[in-house]
Every structure is written in structure tokens, then in C-alpha cells.
Amino acid sequence: MPKPIITSQFNGPQQTLTITPPDGGVRLRGRVQIPGDKSISHRSLMLGALAEGTTTIEGLLLGEDPRSTAACFRAMGAEISKLNTEQVTVQGIGLGNLQEPTGVLNAGNSGTTLRLMLGILASHQNRYFTVTGDDSLRSRPMGRVINPLKEMGAEIWGREGNTLAPLAVQGRSLNPMTYRSPIASAQVKSCLLLAGLMTEGETKVIEPALSRDHSERMLQAFGATVKVDPDEISAAVMGPAKLTGQRVIVPGDISSAAFWLVAGAIAPDSDLVVENVGINPTRTGVLEVLRDMGADLTLENERDAAGEPVADIRVRTSQLQGCEISGAVIPRSIDEIPILAVAAACAKGKTVIRDAAELRVKESDRLAVMASELSGMGASITEHPDGLEVVGGSLLQGSSTDSYTDHRIAMSLAIAALVAKGPTEIHRAEAAAISYPNFVPTLETLCR
Ligand code: S3P
Questions:
Q1: Are residues 242 and 336 in the same domain?
Q2: What pLDDT is stored for residue 202 in this prediction?
Q3: Is 423:20 a contact under the CB 8 Å cutoff?
Q4: Mean predicted confidence (pLDDT) in 212-223
Q5: Residues 6+ positions from 127 with CB-CB distance below 8 Å
Q6: Same domain for 14 and 150
Q7: Which of 115, 143, 233, 300 shows a CA-CA span of 20 to 30 A to 81?
Q8: What was the pLDDT predicted at 305?
Q9: Burial (0-12, 13-18, 19+ Cβ within 10 Å), 274
Q10: How far, in Å, from the CA of 187 to the mean position of ligand 1?
Q11: Is 179 buried (19+), middle (13-18) or exposed (0-12) by CB count in 10 A?
């Protein structure tokens, strides 16, 4: 079977990836290991730094985002071993003991680093912190965490009425509260639970729909008292807590697996097994949606890895059908909507994505960018304020596209390129390293 021609051109740090599939398309086969879960990686570094004793982390994502988290916590006194092996060690310094950093903390491109860290900084008494991020992060809304933190008594300042980074934080003792979040956001929930760790009493967050629950699980594993009420859709932490270093095993990231699951479903004659994928039920919306679309997915070897469920997932080519993606499945598939839009462009009939306005404030405006880039490849796609309408089934055409420096857009476009006619250029493809440093070499080995 002929392989696609994949070339890279660099202009300084910027990479243009060109993918030219052979006539007749590519086929993907084999078994693939994916990088560690990004959300769990951030949390393991943060809780490790706040705990007493040593935390060992196996399978940590060695991408740019966790590197930003590690750099911030090192600057505040945590000893974190080099992130260049699959086993990372964190010497915790104990809750309340973060040192005042002498420089500006830089969260890079990572919303999770900045938002979760704000809860920790705001509750660190008598310390002053300044925090910033890259161009994308400095344009992302921080009011969603700053406003509730201020209700707890936090002192935070920033641009545009305290809503945008760079931010300044004067840590102090906070008051507990019950916060009813208007959005289902694990970053908002986790920020407040982390602020609650050092706050006397119960800090509780009620969500409109359940977002990923990795913080609740890991806080419990580290020894905090966490109460979860599925009927109310709430999570609460009792402070002050004491955290003890743990052994954390990070499962593979289902958000990274999603690229191969869609590729295996849409590329002809494919049969792939994606190994060791985290299948926490708050993250498996992508599997439900793909099954709804008629994808042939099988879960094999289901098991538990230190408090998180994992499985190997087999995918085989099938004819996908359009479907509706809306409501409670959206927070459970929030990061997979760009690659699901690619699946929709290859499916027969119409796919309607609704209730997904949150995508406009991710690393890029993912609704606008997927609409423009897939339209450029010939897809029939209409943008709505809170979603997309995709009429699939016509062959995509190779074209010149841009990631807008968004990792998930870069990889979604690379998968679209595999089933397009002619070459597709993906500008600023280096963004993939945020969550998937080996994406391109892995793509090359799976095409056979
Ligand atoms: C994340 C939560 C989600 C997700 C992000 C990671 C987390 O963001 O999109 O990639 O680790 O808590 P929101 O909480 O803003 O939806």
C-alpha cells in the first residue's frame, strides 16, 4: 500500500507540514501508544508540589503544557525532576509553603495551568505572585475563575477589569463558599477546589452539567476530604486539608486517542488498536458520538490504573453517518469537537453541533477556525454562535490551512489531509507539541 508523502519545512520555530496522500487514500494499521493525559499530568504535578513527601508520576505527558506547569511550581520551590523520562519525581513542600517567586510565572499556552494555579496562589497567605501566558492565553477569559475567587476574598488584578492576564495576585486567607457555576468547566471547578484546600470549612462547586472529575479523584487519592453529589452535580472539599505524596499512573489521553479513532474510522481498510486510553466516564463523549455516527469501536482489556479506568480501543473503517452532538455530551467531548468536525465532513448526511459556544474561548476560536479551514478544503460547513452544521460526504480537497497555533486544530487538519485529494499544507503545525510531541512520526508509522 503506498504511503502518504509527509514533509516539514521550518521557518524559525514555525513548521509547515505538507501531507500528500496517495491516489486511493491511505490505510492505517497497527497498535499505537498515545501520550499521557494532559489534565491528569497537570494535576499530578500540582498536587505533588503541594503534598508532603514524594510523588512519583508514571506516564506523564512530556508536552509543552505540563512543562509550563512544572516550570511555575519549580519557581515556587517544588523540586521536580527533569521531564525527559517516563518517570517524574516531585518533592512536595506541603500546603501553604509555596515560596514567593522572584520572577513572573509563565503558563505558556496552558489554560489549565493558569486557571488551576490561580486558586492555589490566591489562597497562599502573605505571598505576591505575577502570572502571564502566551498571546493566546493572554486573550482567554480569566473572569470565570477570578470572580468566584474574589467572592471568597481573593485579591487579584489584571487587564480589562481584572479579566485578562497578565495578572497580579496577593495571596491571603480565603472564606469558604458554595459556587453555582454558569458553565460546565473542570478548570473553574478545580480552581475553586484547590483554593478550598487551605480554606477553613467546605468549598463547593455546583455545575450545570458534569465536567471531567480528575481533580476530585486525585485530591481524594492524596488524602483530601472530597464530597461528590452526582444528583446535585457538585463537588466539595473540606479545608484545611493535608496532602501526602502518592504514586500516580497517568493513563493515555483520550483527547489524543481521538485523532487515531477518527482516522481509523474514515481512512479506507484501516484497523488500529489505540493502547492504554483513559476511559473516565466524564471524558468518553467522543466514543458515544462516534458510535452514534456508526463507527466500529471495541473496548478491549478494560482495567483500572491507580484510580482511573483505562482500555485499549480498536477501530476499524466504517461508513459514518451524520448525527446531533449537543447537551450534556458536549462537556464530555469538549476537546474532541474539532476532530469530530472532520469525522462529520466525511460522514453521510448532516451533523449538527450545538451548545458548544465554549469552543470559542479555547486555544483558538475552534468553531470559527474549523469552519474556515474545513470550508477551504471543500467541506460544506456553516458556523453558528454555539456550534457547527456540517453536511458531509463529498471528497475533501487538499489546500493551504493554518492551525492558528492551536494543537488540536493542527492535528485535526492533519487527519483531514489523509483523506483529501492532493496535498494539504498545515501552517504552524508545531503547535501539536503542546499535547502530542510525537504526533507526526506516529502518523508516519501507522500509514502502511
Ligand atoms: C481541562 C478542562 C477543559 C478542557 C481543557 C482541560 C482541565 O477546559 O477543555 O483542555 O484539565 O481541567 P474547561 O474547563 O475550560 O472546559
A1: no
A2: 98
A3: yes
A4: 98
A5: 98, 99, 100, 121, 171
A6: no
A7: 115
A8: 87
A9: buried
A10: 5
A11: buried
Tell me: do 15 and 60 sit in the same domain: no
- Whether 169 has a pLDDT exceeding 80, the answer reads yes
Do residue 284 and residue 190 come from a single domain? no
Q: How far is the CA of 57 from the centre of ligand 1 (A)?
A: 21
Residue 17: strand pairing partners:
8, 426
Full residue range of the structural domain in which residue 218 is found = 38-249
For residue 314, pLDDT over 90 is answered with: yes
pTM over cut 0.85? yes
335 catalytic, yes or no?
yes
Minimal-distance CA residue to ligand 1 atom 9: 335
Residue count of the chain, please give it.
448
Nearest Cα neighbor of 76 from 54, 97, 106 is 97
Whole-angstrom Cα distance, residue 206 to residue 351?
31
Ligand 1: which residue has its CA nearest to atom 11? 39
Nearest 5 degrees, angle CA 201-CA 205-CA 209? Answer: 160
The three three-digit cell numbers of residue 30, written as one number:
497497527
Domain boundary among 188, 217, 249: 249
pLDDT in tens, 323-376: 999 999 999 999 999 999 999 999 999 999 999 999 999 999 999 999 999 999
Q: Which residues approach ligand 1 with their CB closer than 6 A?
A: 39, 112, 185-187, 190, 211-212, 334-335, 358
Q: Which of 211, 226, 249 is the last residue of a domain?
A: 249
Could you identify the atom of ligand 1 that is nearest to the CA of residue 189?
A: 14
State which ligand 1 atom lies nearest to the alpha carbon of 190.
12
